[in-house]
Amino acid sequence: MGYITTTDGTAIFYKDWGPRDAQPIVFHHGWPLSADDWDNQMMFFLAQGYRVIAHDRRGHGRSGQSDGGHEMDTYAADVAALVAELDLKKAIHMGQSTGGGEVARYVARAEPGRVAKAVLIDAVPPVMVKKESNPGGTPIEAFDGYRAGLAANRAQLYLDIPSGPFYGFNRPGAKVSEGLIRNWWRQGMMGSIKAQYECIKAFSETDFTEDLEAIEVPVLVIHSEDDQIVPYADAGPLSAKLLRNGTLRTYKDLPHGLCQTHPEIVNADLLAFVRGEPLADDVVVRPAIPLNA
User: Fold this and answer.
1) At what angle do helices 263-275 and 39-47 cross, to 10 degrees?
2) ∠ at Cα 165 (120, 266), nearest 5°?
3) pLDDT greater than 70 at residue 281
4) CB proximity list for 253: less than 8 A, separation 6 or greater
5) pLDDT score of 288 more than 50
6) H or E element: which one contains 176?
7) How far does Cα 38 stand from its chain's mean position?
8) Which residue, of 212, 233, 261, 267, has the greatest Cβ tally within 10 A?
9) 67: enclosing H helix or E strand
């Protein structure tokens, strides 16, 4: 574990575990969390012999609470600085939610040889907010609601989100994990409220269309039809179609936080993709459109 310092003086916290000569996997977390959200996947891939790396986005977790830079260009530049500092080559970048947007922006601009593959999990690309060019998007009022709740009572908002839609604990018959709820709250409260407030605009209004079209490496797009945070129809399938070498993996009824609630399903697909193996058939998984469509 350590820190790098970016060109504007912001300290970026990161974890770096495993053999230095093993293929690196870099994990990018969602809003408003931290590298800790990838605990399960990091331990899983560490046990498989990979080098695993995860950082706290600026203003989140243990990274510096900078006054500015809370937008995708700077997020991607921070990743590039970390990759350069660790001299990562042929890395696989995996991002969930906001982290998926960060992955798309970084990978599209990465130096040759730095990236081998990428994974977008219930990610925000191509663009979340509803507008004339994106009529199926989420109305801006929803994001205004997040901003209002954050400014008024962040501690309560950060209980309400994981207790309800994030992990699908509001669904009938859901098995609620108090530990997941508290861990989500803990991670959120570690960060800067200003950074998290400004990040809402970054994840909801950034258009990643050109980034997706520019990516040449293989990309696995994982999304669940029951995602209550990043609606499926306006995200996963559209991203897969924009990618030159994209594969869509659709889950039917898993929540947005599926990496934490159903790691046994997600990790198996991630490992197969990393190894270049076919994704196994599973009754829980149902492709909504043909792969590579």
Assistant:
1) 50
2) 35
3) no
4) 224, 225, 226, 284
5) no
6) none
7) 10
8) 212
9) none
List, for residues 77-110, the tens digit of each pLDDT value: 999 999 999 999 999 999 999 999 999 999 999 9
Amino acid (one-letter) located at 241 = K
- What is the structure's pLDDT at 285? 36
The answer on pLDDT for 292 being more than 70 is no
**Alpha carbon distance 201, 140 (integer Å):** 10
The values of phi and psi at residue 277, to 5°, are -100, 155
Sheet containing 24-28: order of strands: 2-5, 11-17, 51-55, 24-28, 91-96, 115-121, 219-224, 246-251
Which alpha helices (H) appear in 52-130, and where do they start and end? Answer: 72-86, 98-109
Is 111 exposed, middle or buried (CB count within 10 Å of its CB: 0-12, 13-18, 19+)? exposed
Beta bridge partners of 51: 24
Nearest-Å Rg of the Cα atoms of the chain is 17
> What is the C-alpha to C-alpha distance for residues 195 and 80, in angstroms, rounded to an integer?
20
User: If phi over 0 gives left and psi between -120 and 50 gives alpha, with beta otherwise, what is residue 43?
Assistant: alpha
Among 66, 46, 45, which Cα is nearest to 57's? Answer: 66
The distance of Cα 67 from the centroid of its chain, to the nearest Å, equals: 23
Total-model pTM: 0.94
- The torsion angle over the Cα atoms of residues 8, 31, 279 and 113, rounded to 10 degrees, is 0
Which residues are known to be catalytic?
97, 227, 256
